[in-house]
Amino acid sequence: xxxxxxxxxxxxxxxxxxxxxxxxxxxxxxxxxxxxxxxxxxxxxxxxxxxxxxxxxxxxxxxxxxxxxxxxxxxxxxxxxxxxxxxxxxxxxxxxxxxxxxxxxxxxxxxxxxxxxxxxxxxxxxxxxxxxxxxxxxxxxxxxxxxxxxxxxxxxxxxxxxxxxxxxxxxxxxxxxxxxxxxxxxxxxxxxxxxxxxxxxxxxxxxxxxxxxxxxxxxxxxxxxxxxxxxxxxxxxxxxxxxxxxxxxxxxxxxxxxxxxxxxxxxxxxxxxxxx
Amino acid sequence: xxxxxxxxxxxxxxxxxxxxxxxxxxxxxxxxxxxxxxxxxxxxxxxxxxxxxxxxxxxxxxxxxxxxxxxxxxxxxxxxxxxxxxxxxxxxxxxxxxxxxxxxxxxxxxxxxxxxxxxxxxxxxxxxxxxxxxxxxxxxxxxxxxxxxxxxxxxxxxxxxxxxxxxxxxxxxxxxxxxxxxxxxxxxxxxxxxxxxxxxxxxxxxxxxxxxxxxxxxxxxxxxxxxxxxxxxxxxxxxxxxxxxxxxxxxxxxxxxxxxxxxxxxxxxxxxxxxx
Lengths: 276, 276
Prior knowledge:
The structure is a homodimer. The first copy, chain A, is α/β, with parallel strands linked by helices. Chain A has helices at residues 17-33, 51-54, 64-76, 158-166, 180-198, 247-256, 265-271, and strands spanning 4-10, 38-40, 79-81, 85-89, 92-100, 106-111, 117-119, 124-126, 138-141, 146-149, 171-175, 201-205, 222-224, 230-233, 239-245. In chain A, strands 1, 2, 3, 4, 5, 6 and 15 form a seven-stranded mixed β-sheet that branches. Chain A binds chain B through residues 113-114, 117-121, 133, 135-136, 156-159, 162-163, 166, 182, 185-186, 188-190, 192-193, 196-197, 227-229, 255-259, 262-264, 267-268, 270-272, and chain B through 113-114, 117-121, 133, 135-136, 156-159, 162-163, 166, 182, 185-186, 188-190, 192-193, 196-197, 227-229, 255-259, 262-264, 267-268, 270-272.
């Protein structure tokens, strides 16, 4: 990777698609104005995170929402992790994130692998009723860094980050719509711990809470470095916050606390062999 | 597992072995008096965590330090995770934790697998100069729960917890001597995140900071539940703190947020196959 500036954007996603797209545009324009080269948008950035609405708002990868983001990436010369949309592909629907390069090219597509089927007292949802899962996290070489993309619940699964580690990922972008309940309990802890364990920069963008929604998100979009230090954090409103990622931080942390070098793959093979 | 009470004990470990053993005894007696059935002692509980002193203070598993703890376990009818000592076995030295049952029987032995070789600005140490590594984390069935034991730096390695998960572990005990630097940056975050990710209770016991030592530890021994909630936490002095672990919490968290059930082992096989 090389040094570069990055932003994460959040806003209270509403039922009005065009309003959401205007807010996405404002976030990207602010990023570009601040000198960012990579901008991350929230999970479900053009329709509220509500199971009952997802399919009706689905688009293809060439639909109006992603076309608008693609055009902005090109106009502003930004690499953009286009949060996620509900994608329709033939008869199937996915929670899908697209990475656009600064020329507007599609650098990669991630379809959420782990669907959010939970029965918490305050959060009951079953994505698998309306969505199909993807099969593998996205790893893509951008002009800035080797980038990994995972969506929200994917973050809960260490295997996703072990896959990123194996692929040599340096920066992970996470569009995510944690709820008030899980966000309060786990958001900072999980994201900081992933950055520390796998010695990566991590940028997570979530929708700001919208009290009108049946699913109230947490906000607090953030950027964290491989030591677990919060470089930037939004509150709960419409905000785009940024940080400069310095390649030397990653090199230094991996040298001083060589967790990756200290993995004992020789032992782990025995621990996890079919026969043990 | 069944419901039971647990304590973690910490004190500023000094050069005086017998003083350390008196403090260990006080911690176990306090645990027993409070109705605890499992008591966890700190890493290197009978000699300060200093590379230069470890070998000189080494004992066998039948040496005076562990014999004293064994006798107390039996007298007080406690299951005890006897922190760790520097163990000498023939010509080799290990950072070793022993689990005693309430009848004084040795239930299991863990030798630290991941040796702490780091070059942080404020923490430079190389355990591998004086210690040999163990080969596998300990999993042991106690009368209370299926217990996993890992020591300090082992905690940094997700594979250790994936091994515990595979073995059906419910409670993990971690004798640990994090430094001021790494403790301030990572102690709460890492320990809470491990409990949340692997849906376990976790009890970590570290020596209280001793300003006279060349390696100043962090203290803050703690107990956390599978939702990441801190059930008990010590400060930086000589303290034994406890919490009741309720089996229903573990069952409920695993039911409501079924992370373990949601692992996609079918996909992970492909992600990590030798050919991919």
